[in-house]
Amino acid sequence: MSHRNLGIRGMTREVSEVQEWVSTVMETPWEGTFEEYLKDGQVLCNLLNKIQPGAVKKISTSKMALMQMENHSKFVKKIQEWGVPLSDCYD
Hints:
The chain has 91 residues and is mainly α. It is built from 5 helices and no strands. Helix 4 (42-51) packs parallel to helix 5 (65-81). The longest helix is centred in the last third of the chain and has 17 residues, at 65-81. The protein is globular.
């Protein structure tokens, strides 16, 4: 069975590895569930900026869903520029 068919809850080991890696790169502890921590896209954009300073110029801190989606869009656009296929970005 592929990872795509498992869903996030079926990937406990992988989620733990991602949490550990992100916490290490960001130099901050993971807060909340996987979904809660990544929901607004701020962590994803800040992660990109840790890897490549200035990768994401403006990161929204708004609680509005539209602005959170914009953060996610910036993340996906940047990782596509880095060579990640769009098919690997979404379930």
